[in-house]
Amino acid sequence: MFNRLSERFDDIFRSLRGQGRITERNIDETLREVRRSLLEADVNFKVAKGFILRVKEQALGQDVLKSLTPGQQLVKIVHDELVGLLGGSNSPLKLADLPPTVIMLVGLQGCGKTTIAAKLASQFKEKGRPPLLVAADMYRPAAVEQLQTLGTSIEVPVFSQPAGSDPVEICRLGVDEARKTNRSVVILDTAGRLSIDEEMMHELDRILQATSPHEILFVADCMQGQDAVETAGRFYERLAFSGCVLTKFDSDARGGAALSIREVTGQPIKFVGTGEKVGDLEPFHPDRMASRILGMGDILSLVERAEQVIERDKAQEMEEKLRTASFTFEDFLDQLQAVRRMGPLEQLMGMIPGAGKAMKGMQVDEGAFSQVEAIIRSMTRQERVQPKILNGSRRKRIARGSGTSVQDVNQLVKQFQMMQKMMKQMSRSKGGRKKMKMPFAG
Amino acid sequence: MLSKFFDKVKEGLSRTRAAMTETIAAIVPIGTRLDDDAIDDIEAALIGADMGLETSTEIVDELRKRLRSEQLEDGPAGVMRVLEEQVAAMVALGEEGVLPLEGVLPGKPYVVLIVGVNGAGKTTTAGKLAKRYTDAGKKVVIAACDTFRAAAIPQLEIWAERAGADIVRAQHGADPAAVAFDALEAAKARGADVLLVDTAGRLHNKVNLMEELKKIRRSLAKHDLGAPHETLLVLDGTSGQNALIQAREFNQATELTGFALTKLDGTAKGGIVVALRREMDLPVKLIGVGEGVDDLQPFDGAAFAKALFAE
Ligand SMILES: Nc1nc2c(ncn2[C@@H]2O[C@H](COP(=O)(O)OP(=O)(O)OP(=O)(O)O)[C@@H](O)[C@H]2O)c(=O)[nH]1
Ligand SMILES: [Mg+2]
Questions:
Q1: Among candidates B154, B206, B242 on the partner chain, residue whose Cβ is nearest the Cβ of A223
Q2: pLDDT in tens, B125-169
Q3: Which residue of A has its CA nearest to B158?
Q4: CATH of A299-435, one of 1.20.1250.20, 1.10.260.30, 3.20.20.70, 3.40.1280.10
Q5: What is the CATH number of domain A101-290?
């Protein structure tokens, strides 16, 4: 699924090259694939349509047709256009000249406002700007208690009022309280509501008037479907919010809602929530989002995940080994284990652009990995470090020890030698390659 | 109370209906014939209701076929009828589609495990369902197996109180499988008719959390081989195509018996259920149409299709 788009592009243009001519119609065909991909990612159908038109204009303007690699060229245009639409690189929160900065969170039920409130508060606190949380959801059972519990865990005070109080009053008093107690930031956690619930939307108008927030953040679930346009549009019309936060970004949703929201409101996506822990809040990266929406794999996430499991020094050491091609079976085993710690292989492969094609039809076989591991484990230390000494009788012994056949062992040794050779070539060709930390995964 | 309840459903779905009806009427005004452009627009409108590309394509292919074989009358009415027919056929349920809500339940206690991603509406659905059963004269126990999210237990306590159900809970951070086990034991000891198991929200791509769910299941089965009798995946009605992956993954981990689709009182059309039904042989059993204790309904496929397309 991940690399369908670039794969399809390649196919389309390969067949075209055979014909020797590329026409506007062929571009249309390619763009149909782009549209498909956008819709599968839940980009709103109207937004997708507009996007395709713009890309087509661009593509025709840039002489894609004359390019040697039109497929890649087009992918690049699509990707860049998407990055552009998703907003330049990240926009920080506006802070008040005269504290406290008032931040109001709004959104549908269950989109993750309360959790985001706590995450933002925790981040402000760490930066030395003492925050106050205000519990203004008087409707959902135990919503106040949820915020209080989170507040306690991050040691941030929570302003609340008894059940039955008016949310508008709570917010007003909360901001007063922040002023009196010299808090730099006040975060208003409002109740989730439907955009068509007039009474509840009016409550937001009143909170806005009572507190004049510096930032109004629209919190949206990145698993949301086509309705994102409608909901974001209505909230924006009503409140003119200043930014957006995408939650549940650690899901495998492609997150087309991000593009829809951005397109109908023009407001930047400022953060993404990436987990259930208070620390799981990150700035938004348009380029990563673009790749994700297009289903083109996410090499950056892969590198990050790799960094999580391989300690930094080790990664550097590995890089050095790669460069000098002094890579042994011992290292191979290390990497194998590191890769497996990163998660299911299929998922990892999906993150590597281009791997989709190579891996197609070839089931990622976790069993094969276990076999490789077993073979290496049956080697002596010396054999692992100096594979050259692996003669026939040694190989027979290893096969027996690992419950495999001599052919299996032979094949692994051969693959390993090929890999070593490849690395030598890679280390000779200068440039980006040096950054590759995971030869085995690549 | 009951009539207010039905009004709410109608109101919720009527918005949906109005939107689709207007769109289709604008694409094929009265007296006009369908053409390829119009069919593309209809496909887009179906996609706009979250039915997904493949399902929408399949539906308009049928339209095209009828058009070619001259079986389609001009104007929006004929088109809507075909669309309604198609969708109704896709979401139609068999016997297994009905969640037993009254009479003799097939299990004592009848154990319903409620699962889903974060914020989908699990706890609310558990609360509403508890109310349905207590209204039907059943003795209900709720197991508070979300021991992770802040204030999840107090939230459920309030729902239990509203519904007149008992709750079995442990401390925050306790092992949810152990809570489930204790709750089933307690439900049996108290002679309860129904045990509802509310679990923590979890993303389907988190391996450990899915494992935890399997463990909860196993620990219920340890007590009663038939339990859980129902495993409902709660899906947010606003969700897009990712719901298909959610359904697949949760089904793999816990063998679902059906879905509950929430938040249908909003502007989202919930078309994802059509895509879901087409892909998986599992029924939608319940729909949520509001935040009140009575805002829960058995799913009616024909009514759903009608609400989407009827004039
Ligand atoms: N409008 C509307 N809101 C709903 C419906 N069902 C649930 N909600 C709201 O959605 C929000 C989340 O519901 P919960 O029941 O807490 O969801 P959950 O799945 O238990 O959430 P976690 O346990 O945090 O994963 C709450 O504000 C509910 O009131 C519905 O049918 N319509
Ligand atoms: Mg819950």
A1: B242
A2: 999 999 999 999 999 999 999 999 999 999 999 999 999 999 999
A3: A141
A4: 1.10.260.30
A5: 3.40.50.300
